[in-house]
Backbone:
């Protein structure tokens, strides 16, 4: 299914969860961590079950929220400034389209590293924070054609986290290397989303799918929408 991301509510949610956990670690107030956990689990259905991107009449319709639509974005053809296929674009740094990914990555890696040191009993949980913090940024640093660099980064993460785990006294520290090796080889496969960036006058959105044919169909629909509705060059 073709779904979209990049809405301001997603960045705000990820920042709020990370911020609450960070405050909990720094202050020792467990209520903040509980609140962050509740916020995460309540938002999980929305994050996991994205809604299909639709072309309704002469507008592109993007919706967020499941099972109830929380936000709806309608984009007219004349509002589209740029369309970029991140997997095929040459000489384009994808990170320019997602600057919020930088502070979020630093926040989540900071939470994971600090948690690792303060409370190593939950070391695998903190490892997850660091991993997902990196995965927020990696797709915007390395497109699919350079996925080997993503794999090398993941392997490096395993070595660093394993060393940190040993330093804080975690007995099963070699597992971090093994886990990242498995993740890294999985990342080498083609089982990852292909993403198209849509830049408008009001925001930047990411349309993604694991299915190559669905993305092609979406691009064709977008071409018809743009060429029939404005003089913006078709993607």
Residues:
């Amino acid at each position: 299914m073709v779904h979209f991301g990049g809405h301001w509510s997603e960045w705000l949610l990820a920042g709020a969860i990370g911020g609450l956990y960070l405050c909990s670690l720094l202050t020792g107030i467990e209520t903040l961590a509980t609140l962050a956990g509740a916020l995460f689990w309540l938002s999980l259905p929305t994050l996991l079950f994205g809604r299909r991107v639709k072309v309704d009449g002469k507008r592109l319709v993007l919706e967020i929220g499941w099972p109830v639509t929380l936000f709806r974005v309608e984009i007219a053809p004349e509002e589209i400034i740029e369309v970029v296929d991140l997997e095929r674009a040459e000489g384009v740094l994808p990170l320019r389209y997602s600057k919020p990914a930088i502070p979020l990555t630093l926040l989540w890696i900071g939470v994971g590293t600090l948690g690792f040191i303060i409370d190593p009993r939950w070391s695998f949980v903190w490892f997850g924070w660091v991993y997902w913090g990196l995965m927020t940024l990696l797709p915007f640093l390395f497109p699919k054609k350079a996925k080997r660099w993503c794999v090398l980064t993941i392997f490096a993460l395993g070595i660093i986290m394993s060393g940190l785990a040993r330093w804080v006294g975690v007995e099963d520290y070699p597992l971090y290397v093994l886990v990242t090796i498995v993740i890294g080889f999985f990342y080498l496969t083609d089982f990852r989303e292909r993403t198209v960036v849509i830049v408008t006058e009001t925001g930047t959105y990411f349309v993604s799918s694991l299915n190559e044919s669905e993305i092609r169909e979406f691009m064709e629909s977008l071409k018809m929408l743009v060429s029939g509705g404005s003089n913006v060059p078709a993607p």
